[in-house]
């Protein structure tokens, strides 16, 4: 176990090197980032003084240095978590990201929690009533939900359940009402949930199908195992066999699935945060793309990738913890 | 060969849902291919010309095959027909996706001759025409992006699975590194640094979508490499290239086909999401996501701007997902 943990932690180093290197190549996609940023694609090339101004900008952002030096500057930025300043409002990039991070993280954690909370009973029900009418209807509904484009659903929900034309049940967007910080804490939580209800609905529903399907097949496999037959033969209560013996073992793979959900959740939050104007990482990315704010975009790509890397690591470690067989297999495989 | 078709096609068409999904996909491809014939302000046929203008017999064919398209499109055929100076047979949707009409801004859907079947947008452009022409972009992005993803996934996953050892170790690490990047943020970053264009969008979606394919192909190759028929081929002196492309790859086609179907659904969804965010195909080009983006500005007035594009996207995505799901069941009988 400890050897596995150590190996797994050591593997983070090449992964981090890869992330930073790929991101560095990304920044080189734009031939002259400063010129485009300052003067637009065509530029004011013929204006007197433009050349000199560009030169100054290039020096200021470090584009005049040789490539290897720029690469090391990026490493320095990553290791000190200090990504110079935004080109739009000249605030430190890290400050902007740290400000946005809790919103995205909070939204994603609630989303994952609710996805699991609803998918697990659905999957178990489908497994116990395989190919029944109810199972078919559940599968069909989940299928339709899985294929509904999130941004379309978000627009429809906003139109019919927020704002006031049809049902004025939810606010149009944002994170909390004005002056909410003066309320007692339980009302603050209620206000928060009121604001987050629609965004969470939109980010949750698409993952049900995938997860509950997975739980169904894993549960059905567990029900066929020898130890279940033994438990039944022993004369144990069949409810106990199903809900204790089979369930425990079929839930193990769910831990790693969490790792698979993470990158898509970070990405999916761009559209949800934009539509519901939640000031998280996705909204920040969207705004920076629109403002041509390279430093923020690049820093955000790195931070999001590193966060995902850590998330996958945690899921792997948790997996090894709950299922001792796995870590052994994994070490063998490499 | 005949047996394969019986084995594959009979279960495939025994199910009503699968047939409808296939029909939707055929319709989708047909619409994309013939978009300019389905939605066009140019008539198919013209007769009874009482004007002084020299009008070709079939303006739409002349426009497709002739060089001076501008002259043809500047004639307002609908106007002439309304005034009774011309008789003409029009396309089902007699509008161009680019043609603005400031007299008919946000016009609700209307039927009848020269009706806007799906309404008009904020510039008076016909939504039906824009959606029909948008199909072209959607299918192009879907097919090309998935093609790129397949090439990368098969090459990288195949090399990792076939050669094993150090190659496998390095390539697997590389796949794990790329997985760490959240797709949507990565795509947005690349499109921010490059200029958003149809080609860039296809390449970016393809380049970020190959990791899942590579993983499956790697597993598939690892499994097939040890089978008897591959060993037999190797012992009879087949080269690596021949072993990979002649013996292992054709036997791994099942998961590739399944993932291609799911991949197209995903790519269509991503493309419309990008257009929705305003970083998709550049401005006057029609796209499903672009129409949906407009609906955000007029949520209370224009329900048709939300309903129709969303429904188009949903239908396409559901059809490709269904097809993928069905193919998986047929090609992998163990799961049934």
- CATH domain fold name of the largest domain in chain B: MetI-like fold
- The radius of gyration of chain A is 25 Å
Counting DSSP E segments of at least 2 residues, the number of strands of chain A comes to 0
Low-confidence parts of chain B: none
Compute the number of helices of chain A: 15
Strand line-up of the largest beta sheet of chain B: 1-2
Notes on the structure:
The complex is a heterodimer of chains A (334) and B (336). Chain A is mainly α and 334 residues long. Chain A has two domains: 31-82, no CATH class; 93-333, MetI-like (MetI-like fold, Orthogonal Bundle), CATH 1.10.3720. Chain A has helices at residues 2-10, 12-27, 33-39, 50-61, 67-80, 93-128, 133-147, 150-161, 185-223, 226-233, 238-250, 254-275, 281-291, 294-322, 324-333. Chain A is globular, with a radius of gyration of 25 Å. Chain B contains 16 helices and two strands. Chain B has a two-stranded antiparallel sheet. In chain B, helix 2 (16-33) crosses helix 16 (303-331) and helix 9 packs antiparallel against helix 10. The longest helix of chain B has 37 residues, at 127-163. Chain B starts with a helix and ends in a 5-residue tail after the last helix.
């Amino acid at each position: 176990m400890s050897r596995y943990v150590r190996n797994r932690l050591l593997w983070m180093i090449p992964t981090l090197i890869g992330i930073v290197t790929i991101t560095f190549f990304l920044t080189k996609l734009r031939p002259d980032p400063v010129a485009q940023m300052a003067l637009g694609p065509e530029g004011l090339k013929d204006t007197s003084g433009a050349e000199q101004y560009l030169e100054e900008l290039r020096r200021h952002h470090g584009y005049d240095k040789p490539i290897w030096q720029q690469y090391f500057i990026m490493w320095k930025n990553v290791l000190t978590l200090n990504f110079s300043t935004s080109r739009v409002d000249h605030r430190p990039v890290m400050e902007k990201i740290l400000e946005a991070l809790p919103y995205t993280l909070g939204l994603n954690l609630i989303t994952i929690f609710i996805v699991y909370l609803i998918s697990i009973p659905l999957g178990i029900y489908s497994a116990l009533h395989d190919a029944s009418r109810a199972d078919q209807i559940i599968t069909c509904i989940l299928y339709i939900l899985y294929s509904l484009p999130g941004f379309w659903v978000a627009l429809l929900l906003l139109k019919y359940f927020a704002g006031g034309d049809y049902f004025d049940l939810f606010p149009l967007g944002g994170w909390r009402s004005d002056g909410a910080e003066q309320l007692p804490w339980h009302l603050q939580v209620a206000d928060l949930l009121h604001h987050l209800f629609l965004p969470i609905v939109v980010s949750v529903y698409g993952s049900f199908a995938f997860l509950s399907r997975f739980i169904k097949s894993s549960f059905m496999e567990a029900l066929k195992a020898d130890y279940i037959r033994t438990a039944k033969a022993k004369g144990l209560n069949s409810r106990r066999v199903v809900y204790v013996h089979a369930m425990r073992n079929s839930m193990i793979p769910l831990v790693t699935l969490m790792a698979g959900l993470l990158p898509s959740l970070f990405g999916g939050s761009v559209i949800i945060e934009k539509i519901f104007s939640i000031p998280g990482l996705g909204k920040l990315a969207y705004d920076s793309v629109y403002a041509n704010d390279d430093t923020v975009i690049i820093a955000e790509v790195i931070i999001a990738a590193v966060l995902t890397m850590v998330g996958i690591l945690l899921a792997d470690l948790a997996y090894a913890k709950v299922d001792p067989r796995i870590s052994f297999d994994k070490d063998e495989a490499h | 060969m005949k047996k394969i078709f019986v084995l594959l096609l009979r279960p495939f068409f025994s199910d009503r849902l699968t047939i409808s999904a296939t029909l939707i996909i055929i319709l989708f491809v047909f619409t994309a291919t013939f978009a300019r014939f389905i939605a066009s302000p140019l008539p198919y046929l013209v007769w009874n010309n009482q004007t002084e203008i020299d009008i070709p017999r079939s303006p739409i064919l002349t426009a497709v095959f002739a060089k001076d398209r501008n002259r043809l499109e500047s004639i307002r055929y609908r106007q002439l027909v309304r005034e009774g100076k011309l008789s003409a047979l029009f396309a089902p949707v007699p509008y161009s996706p680019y043609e603005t009409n400031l007299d008919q801004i946000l016009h609700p859907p209307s039927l009848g001759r020269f009706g806007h079947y799906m309404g008009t947008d904020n510039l008076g452009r016909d939504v039906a025409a824009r959606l029909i022409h948008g199909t072209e972009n959607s299918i192009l992005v879907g097919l090309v992006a998935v093609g790129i993803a397949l090439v990368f996934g098969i090459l990288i996953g195949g090399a990792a699975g076939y050669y094993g050892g150090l190659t496998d170790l390095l390539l697997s690490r590389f796949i794990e590194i790329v997985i760490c990047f959240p797709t949507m943020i990565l795509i947005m970053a690349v499109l921010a640094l490059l200029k958003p264009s149809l080609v860039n969008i296809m390449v970016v979606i393809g380049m970020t979508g190959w990791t899942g394919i590579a993983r499956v192909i790697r597993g598939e190759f690892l499994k097939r490499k040890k089978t008897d028929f591959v060993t037999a081929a190797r012992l009879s002196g087949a080269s690596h290239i021949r072993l990979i492309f002649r013996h292992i790859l054709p036997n791994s086609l099942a998961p590739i086909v399944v993932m291609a179907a799911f991949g197209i659904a995903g790519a269509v969804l991503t493309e419309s999401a990008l257009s929705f965010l305003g970083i998709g195909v550049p401005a006057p080009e029609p796209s499903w996501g672009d129409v949906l983006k407009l609906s955000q500005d007029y949520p209370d007035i224009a329900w048709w701007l939300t309903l129709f594009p969303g429904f188009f996207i949903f239908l396409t995505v559901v059809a490709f997902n269904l097809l993928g799901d069905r193919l998986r069941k047929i090609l992998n009988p163990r799961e049934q």
